[in-house]
Every structure is written in structure tokens, then in C-alpha cells.
Amino acid sequence: MADNVTSLFRSTAAHSPSMAALAREGGDGTGPVDFCIPCNPYFPTPAMMDTMASRLKDIITYYPSSADTITAELCNLLQLPPQAVAMGNGSTELITWIDHLLVRESLAIPVPTFGRWTDQPMETGKRVDMFPLQESSGFALDLAQYAEFIRTRGTRVAVICNPNNPDGGFLHKHALVQFMDAMADLDLIVIDESFLEFADAEQEPSVVQEAMIRPNVIVLRSLGKNFGLHGIRFGYMVANPSLAGRVRSMLPKWNLNAFAEYVVFMLKEHGAEYAQSLHQVRRDRLDMASQLAALPGLTVYPSQGNFLFVRLPVGAEGTVVRDRMLTEHRILVRECGNKIGSSSRFLRLVVRPQVDVRRLVSGLEQVLYGTRRGAAVPELAQGTSYSSGTAAVDRLVGQTNGAGMQDLAAMAVGGGGMGGGVGMPMPVAQPMAVAAAAPMGAAASMGPAASMGMAASMGAGMPMPAQMPAPAPMPAPAPAPMPTPPPAPAPFAPPSGPTPPGVPARGGLTAAQVRGMTAPAPGAPQELSQAPATGWPNAQSWPNAAGMGQAG
């Protein structure tokens, strides 16, 4: 039975298997303790669940109202004009229509991030320019560097997730407004605020009001994550009436189900319980981060979502940790090796009540350090390839560097049909570093305000692995004659204008190579320099990109 459960992860590579699938394979029909799916564990309340259960027959028997009726009720609750809102059957339905209607040729997205922002545009033949967030900076997004990257690539659509998934990185509202001002000439800017309700670094962090008065900005919001009801599938977007109307016109009249309608109409009576649930999640996040940071060698990154991003100790491999936590402790965790820009050294752990966190910490102690069950987990061989879970996307990533169209990389090298027949040499790909950088202490990785009560709780680092004996020397073979090297080509001067599709975007690194990158390899280009402040009002007064410890 254990083999059946763990095999589910290998057949759903882009995302984790559903809780229903895990419950079916678990034997007794009950699922594990869930630290994977980012739900609100405190909402709806038990009384609300009882009310919905008592109405179950009516809810599933009859047609719901039209999407316009449900949207109007949500807008009345949120004090938003209905003409600026479109509701979807989950935020992924809205992402799909945004891609089909509003993304013409290229989209930029920091990675790691939510997989549909990379996979959806590639599935429809768009070029995806992936901006790698650096582990050395705690996966914080530097907006000035991101803007410079977009200008260099000539990207037409920019996406920012705030907070970002899986790391929980946060950007202050005024920094995002400055970014929108500087990128006002782009076709579209999307700010994905799916997890923003859980943030407490700023009193009013949303840019919804700004989006409604701009011609090229969409804000995406999720209801399933906030309300702990992923299965209902409902989310919404806010934009100026023209943009919102284009998306709304493509949606089916009954794209929202009767459960979504029932929940939306009952929310106005439960505002206090909802606010209390968010407050409790934020308190649990601090407590959970403190307990995890006390585990030797485990790095916890600052988060404003309802989850924490952690790096496992040296020698631990995420898929092994995930499988053992599930089969030995019935605890489900999210291993992030299939997210572009991440690796199996990282887990995303959803914030849960303290009683569940104690069980999680106990299980991690046993699996990571062998306190009761065997030895520490082994580290698998390097080189596991990225899988999106969609074969077409995997082929595009492997063959076009994320460009989304076949043979563009070859055309860029040979000049076949690119830029009026003028070929563009492919930059030399730099070798990736085999070993990740030394783990940062939790307090150091949290930035200036990252205390979260962790500094005092950090334990000693992981012991160094035993040194391997040196292999016996092999007799040196006779050197083969070396061919005369060709003359060195003249230095390449990049042309002005956007980089052609298919050419690696940063230091010769392809989109596939971005996966797992934690620091530049020896000899590779160093960190991007700070972009000039031209066009950015008060650029030097920005807060740190993580948004921690700054005044709202």
C-alpha cells in the first residue's frame, strides 16, 4: 500500500496528487495530515460546515444562479464595482483566459513560482522569460533588476506573485505601484495576490484599487485558499472595466457551481470568524517557523503566505523525506523539486495548528536525523530533469529554452528565419554548480527583521560528512594529438533591441538550467547589478524586497 501511495507523486509530476487520490490509496479512506495544500485550517468554522452539510441535497441537486448574480454578491461584500470584476472556476481558469486573450508573444515571471504561470503560456506557444530568484538573497525579488531583465528581453507581459509561491516573499504596495508606473508601456502586468490575505507586513497591501484605474493591470485573487475551500473552485480578477469585460465575455454563463454560490452568500454573516481565522494563521506561522528553525541544518525563509519554504540539511533529499513522512508518519509535505528554479533540497510546508506542527517536527527529527528510525536520508544523484507533468511542456522546455516554439534556439544560432536572416550566436552555457551553497542560519536568512523569535532557537549545524578515501591513481594514458584550434572569433556585440526568442536570457543559462540554481557557478556571471533609477521615483528609498520589518 505504501508503494501505491508514493507512486502517485511520480504520475502527477507538476503538482501533488489530490487528497481524494491519497485517501483512496491509503487503505482506510482517510487522508494524511496535510502540510501540502495551502488551505486556511480555521475557516469555515465547524458550525458553517454543519450548515452547508444540512443543505447538501439542495446544493447539488439544482442549478446555481448565473455567474453575474454570484459576482454581484461578491462585489457587494468587497465593495468593488461589478464591471471591474470577473469570477472564475478557480484562479487557474482566469490564468488560462488571460493567456489566451491578452498574452500575445512573451511573458516574464520570477521563478520558482506557481507552475501555471510558466506552463500555461508555453502550452500555447508563447515565450516565457524566467527571472531566477537567488537563494543567496533569500529568494527576494528585486524589482529594479526584474524591470531591467524585462527591458533587456523585450518581454511584453510581466507577472508578479505577492506573496510568491512557494517561498512567501512579499513586496510592499508602494514598490509595486512604482513598478507599474515604470512598466506602463507593457501590454499587461498581472499581480497575483492569491495569498495576500495572510500577509501582515502592511495594513493595506493590495493594489486592487490601482488596477481599476490603469489600462494594463490585472490583480488576481483566490477565494479557495483564503476560505479553506479549494474543492469549490472559485477565484476572481480585478481590472479596469475594459480588461475585465474581455475576460468575462469569454466565461460560460454557469462557470460557478452551487457550492460557490452558497459560500459567497453566507460570507456576509461570518466576517468576524473569517478575520479571526486569518489572525490565528499569522500567529501559527510565527510559532511554526520558530519550531522548524530549531532543527539542526534546516533553513527557514521569511514568508507572508500561509506556508513556509524550508531548505533541508545537507545530505537530505526531498523526495525521500516526502515519501518517508507519508508512509511512516502519515504526514503529507510538498517537495519542490518539480518547480522550475527550485530543487529537491526544498520543501513548502503549510501553516497548521500547533498540535499538528508538533507531529510534523517529531516526524522530521526521525526522518532527518534517525532518532528512532534508521539513518539520515540519503541524497540522490544529481541531474534529475524538470517535469511539468505535461509532456508537451517538457519537450518545449528541453528544446527551446522555454521559448514555447519549436526550433527557435537553432534558428537563433544559424540565422534561419530570425531577424531577417541575421543569425545571433548562442551564448556559451555556464556549468551549473554541483553542490548548493552552505546552508544559511535561519536568523541570517531572515533579513534585518526576521527575527520571528528564531535567532535564539537555532541549534548547531549539521556535522560534515565523512571524507571519502581518495581513489588509487590510474596510469596516465598517452596524450592524443590536439587539433589546431580555430582562430578566436571577434568579440560579439549584442544588437540593440529585444533578445530573439530561444536565446538564453541570463548569462547563457537556459530555462531548463534555471531549475535548481542556487548560486552562480564558478566563472559564471555574478549577481545582476542594481538597475539604474531612471524612471523609478524615489528608487533609493525602497524597502528591502522581502518586505519584512518595514513600516507600512
Topology:
Blueprint: H1 2-11, H2 19-25, E1 33-35, H3 46-54, H4 56-61, H5 67-78, E2 85-88, H6 91-102, E3 106-111, H7 116-123, E4 127-132, H8 143-153, E5 157-161, H9 173-182, E6 188-192, H10 208-212, E7 217-222, H11 224-227, E8 235-239, H12 241-250, H13 258-266, H14 271-293, E9 299-300, E10 307-311, H15 318-329, E11 331-335, E12 346-350, H16 354-369, H17 391-400, H18 408-414, H19 442-445, H20 511-514
Helix pairs in contact: 6-7, 14-16, 15-16
Describe, in plain words, how this protein is organized in 3D:
The chain has 552 residues and is of the alpha/beta class. The protein is 34% helix and 10% strand. The strands form two sheets. The chain has a seven-stranded mixed β-sheet with strand order 2-8-7-6-5-3-4, sandwiched between helices. A five-stranded mixed β-sheet has the order 1-11-12-10-9. It is globular. The chain starts with a helix and ends in a 38-residue tail after the last helix. 44% of the residues are buried. Mean pLDDT is 75; it is low at 372-471 and 488-552.
